[in-house]
């Protein structure tokens, strides 16, 4: 980080003892910026984002296959200072200070607190989770850009708890499925995979892993 920026940090306000959020909750917080001398800012934003990713490997003889995928659960952005030539995006909003004025793109020396950003999502999303082959993470990230300088960033994770009704019929019953795939690369043949989990859904904190246990069956190469 360049010497003009001493510190940048983002934080949020907990709303309960378990420090979790759900679809009906509002996340609010602040970004603290400390600068050593007068600084010209190109853009300054804070965003809330949820990402799900999975990756595992399987070996068939001497051949190793890597399976991976990722998905953005949601993304919302709030700008304190927006680059003038920027194009408006989904989830975009321009924040104002406590006097309902636009934030200046020239910041004087000292410590400055950019507050009152709020996020609310009306849709239910998967609960926070971290396992050996996959994870679902939610975080707030502050990012400050200046001309001809590296970006200054800070990020903090928060826990999200899905409100899916666990009383839905069959929700807690064991699940089982299978699929067959024909291979046409390097080797020819087919792979049949069986997957099972002992319950359809778990809440954060009740189980360390809910990913299915998969293993190839009747592999013919």
From TrEMBL:
Xref: InterPro entries: Arrestin-like_C, Arrestin-like_N, Arrestin_domain-protein, Ig_E-set
Top-level taxon in the UniProt lineage: Eukaryota
Span of domain Arrestin-like N-terminal: 11-166
Coiled-coil ranges from the UniProt annotation: none
Entries under Gene3D superfamilies matching the protein: 2.60.40.640
Biological processes, Gene Ontology terms: nervous system development
SUPFAM superfamilies linked: E set domains (SSF81296)
Protein family per UniProt: Belongs to the arrestin family.
Name of the protein: Arrestin-like N-terminal domain-containing protein
